[in-house]
Amino acid sequence: MNQKGLIYSFVAKGTVVLAEHTSYSGNFSTIAVQCLQKLPSNSSKYTYSCDGHTFNFLP
Known about the structure:
There is one protein chain. The chain has 59 residues and is of the alpha+beta class. It is 19% helix and 36% strand. It contains one helix and four strands, in the order ββαββ. It has one helix spanning 28-38; strands at 9-13, 16-21, 46-50, 53-57. Strands 1-2 form a two-stranded antiparallel ribbon. The protein has a two-stranded antiparallel ribbon with strand order 3-4. The N and C termini lie far apart (29 Å).
């Protein structure tokens, strides 16, 4: 398995992305906002997988 490491990072308040960074092209920002809207309010960690990528959220 080929692992690229961290390819996208962002900081958000609520569902608003305040800052983000990636060196790759893709729809990372769109998926991040969709995931933010679905985050459970009582969770301390949330993981979402899409198109072979894993997104980890720490609220």
